[in-house]
């Protein structure tokens, strides 16, 4: 197997990281909890929150019959819900995925500027060029991409299925053109032992985990197990007792018998981990000190999902500022690889994947 890093791809030097919110602003925002809860119920809106959102947003989902999950589960739940209004608390690709799968529903997001650095690493013009350079390769795009990028892809996949899909495509004799996360690309090439032409994109959070800092934490907590999301560098993955998507890391921490965990993923996941296992200790993995303007392992765009903005979605004067729209031609083209992912996931769960998906 080999990993071939693609060249001449436009990767932003700096990402438009939103300013940090002060403690006073956060406290004022939390005062809105009961009002937002009433608004969600009154508007019969389903709140779907990613594990990386703030604990108070996850609690709001819990108390209003909403849902908290990883990006694959979020896609499924929005599609299957009978409710006509969905509020997606996450980053924009998650809202777009919900709209692609449920065009008849109103999909709202607290802030349409909730980027993902991986999405920002992936320009359509580059994809068109690279596809022409590797015409035989199967384009597998990570879910963390725009609707337009999905429309140019053969498959979409989330981290929970990425190795299994790479294995499946290898079995069909297909080469993979993987985008946009370089670390996940390298992880699937190593684990499925297959050739991957890999995009050089990065997640600002996971790319910043620091192996030497994690080794120091291990010395301090020798009994601790290390949980790692595969968007992290290979040097961090090498230290892991479990590598997986957010849901997979959460599931491992529940069933495993250790008492302490060093967690290399976004800190929002601690809410559900601690709720499931109040007697266990979860420690945030170390972030490299140099060149990172992050507030620890915190996704700067997930933090845009405040209670005041959820309220604005439902009762604000400018609803168009919150509604996800996807041009119909792009939606139809993106639906195909997304449906393939959902069919693949369902077939895997059922225990047998047909060769012609
Ligand atoms: P999951 O698919 O594991 O939820 O991850 C999404 C994500 O953005 C990770 O950074
Ligand atoms: Fe994107 Fe990274 Fe934030 Fe996940 S944590 S949404 S990959 S920037």
Descriptive key words:
5-stranded parallel β-sheet, alpha/beta, Rossmann fold, 13 strands, globular, 4-stranded parallel β-sheet, binds 1,3-dihydroxyacetonephosphate
Helix content: 40-55%
Q: Termini, distance in Å?
A: 24 Å
Structural class of the helix and strand makeup? alpha/beta
Number of helices: 16
CATH class of the largest domain: Alpha Beta
Proportion of residues in extended strands: 5-15%
CATH topology of the largest domain: Rossmann fold
In total, the number of domains comes to 3
Indicate the multimeric state.
Answer: single chain
Q: Spatial order of the strands in the main sheet?
A: 1-9-8-6-7
How would you characterize this protein structure?
The chain is built from 16 helices and 13 strands. The protein has a 5-stranded parallel sheet with strand order 1-9-8-6-7. Helix 4 runs parallel beside helix 5. It is globular. Bound molecules: 1,3-dihydroxyacetonephosphate (13P) and iron/sulfur cluster (SF4). The site of iron/sulfur cluster has 14 residues, from helix 6.
Secondary structure: elements and pairs:
Blueprint: E1 3-5, H1 23-30, H2 33-42, E2 45-50, H3 55-63, E3 67-69, H4 71-80, E4 85-89, H5 92-101, E5 106-108, H6 117-120, H7 124-133, E6 138-142, H8 147-151, E7 155-157, H9 162-171, E8 176-179, H10 182-192, E9 196-198, H11 211-220, E10 225-228, H12 234-237, E11 242-243, H13 246-255, E12 260-264, H14 270-276, E13 281-284, H15 307-315, H16 328-350
Helix pairs in contact: 2-15, 4-5, 5-16, 9-10
The protein binds 1,3-dihydroxyacetonephosphate and iron/sulfur cluster.
1,3-dihydroxyacetonephosphate is lined by residues 70-71, 144, 158-159, 203, 229, 231, 245-246.
């Amino acid at each position: 197997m080999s990993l071939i890093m693609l060249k001449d791809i436009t990767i932003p030097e700096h990402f438009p990281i939103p300013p940090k919110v002060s403690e006073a602003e956060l406290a004022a925002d939390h005062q809105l909890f009961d009002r937002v809860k009433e608004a969600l119920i009154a508007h019969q809106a389903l709140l779907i929150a990613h594990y990386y959102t703030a604990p108070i947003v996850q609690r709001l989902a819990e108390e209003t019959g909403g849902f908290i999950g990883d990006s694959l589960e979020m896609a499924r739940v929005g599609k299957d819900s009978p409710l006509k209004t969905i509020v997606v608390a996450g980053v924009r690709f998650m809202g777009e995925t919900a709209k692609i799968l449920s065009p008849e529903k109103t999909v709202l997001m607290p802030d349409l500027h909730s980027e993902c650095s991986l999405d920002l690493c992936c320009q359509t013009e580059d994809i068109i060029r690279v596809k022409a350079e590797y015409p035989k390769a199967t384009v597998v795009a990570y879910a963390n991409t725009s609707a337009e990028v999905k429309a140019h892809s053969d498959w979409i996949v989330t981290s929970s299925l990425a190795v299994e899909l790479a294995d499946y495509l290898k079995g069909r004799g297909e080469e993979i053109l993987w985008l946009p996360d370089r670390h996940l690309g390298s992880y699937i090439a190593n684990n499925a032992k297959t050739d991957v032409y890999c995009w050089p994109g990065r997640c600002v959070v996971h790319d910043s985990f620091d192996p030497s800092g994690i080794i120091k934490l291990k010395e301090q907590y020798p009994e601790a197990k290390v949980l790692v999301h595969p968007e992290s560098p290979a040097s961090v993955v090498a230290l892991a007792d479990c590598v997986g998507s957010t849901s997979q890391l959460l599931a491992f921490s529940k069933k495993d018998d250790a008492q302490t965990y060093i967690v290399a993923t976004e800190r929002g996941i601690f809410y559900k981990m601690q709720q499931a296992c109040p007697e266990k200790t979860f420690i945030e993995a170390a972030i490299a000190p140099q060149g990172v303007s992050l507030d620890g392992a915190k996704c700067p765009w997930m933090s845009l999902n405040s209670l005041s903005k959820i309220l604005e979605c439902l009762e604000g004067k400018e609803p168009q500022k919150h509604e996800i729209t996807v041009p119909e031609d792009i939606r139809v083209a993106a639906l195909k690889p997304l449906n393939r992912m959902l069919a693949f996931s369902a077939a895997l769960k059922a225990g047998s994947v047909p060769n012609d998906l």
